[in-house]
Amino acid sequence: MVSQPQEILRHTVAILVDNEAGVLARVIGLFSGRGYNIESLTVAEVDTREQLSRITIVTSGTLMVIEQIKAQLRRLVPVHKVSDLTIEGPSVSRELALVKVAGTGERRVESLRIADIFRARAVDSTNDSFVFEIVGATDKLDAFIHLMEPLGLVDVSRTGVVAIARGPNPI
User: Fold this and answer.
1) What is the DSSP string of 98-165?
2) Pairing outcome for strands 79-84 and 9-18
């Protein structure tokens, strides 16, 4: 009997940790030491009184690999909670990008038109370039960047995914 290959899934995992030196290195070390890929990573302090930070990681793998990642994260000493926002209920996720496009004439007009369609804001402008700010789902940002390539895409800076569970409960 031939086994079917397992589907590779993308998951957003939120990790509540102590806000102290070396915690991020331990989390990253867990991923690199086992060959897991990180597609996006964001970190921010979320509770100054309790000195807690949230690490949001987008990773991919089979369901078994995702479960292994979560189990290993839970065993790290500074970790308080691990939530898989992809499967634990509704969540909201967003990413921000700054996209620099250089061009004149029709290319300039077209880049403004596409930015308007995507609700991107021009946050900087010179006679021959724009820097657009765009916020949304990763797929939206990818599509916008792809459309800007032939119009003179110069540079892209992305924040990585931030995500939060919907409803009144934390993580």
Assistant:
1) EEEEE--THHHHHHHHHHHHTT-EEEEEETTEEEEEEEE-HHHHHHHHHHHGGGTEEEEEE---EEEE
2) antiparallel
* Amino acid symbol at 51: Q
Amino acid making up residue 104: T
Q: Which two tokens stand for residue 134?
A: 């765009």
Task: Find the Cα–Cα–Cα–Cα dihedral 109, 117, 40, 52, rounded to 10°.
Answer: 110
Characterize the bridge pairing of strands 129-136 and 52-61.
unpaired
Note the pTM of the prediction, 2 decimals.
Answer: 0.85
Reported as a pLDDT band with limits 50, 70 and 90, residue 139 is very high
pLDDT at 128: 95
pLDDT, tens digit, for every residue of 45-103? 999 999 999 999 999 988 899 999 999 999 998 999 999 999 998 999 999 999 999 99
Provide Rg for the chain, Cα atoms: 19
56/44 Cα distance (integer angstroms): 9
The C-alpha atoms of residue 16 and residue 23 are separated, in whole angstroms, by 11
pLDDT score recorded for residue 141: 98
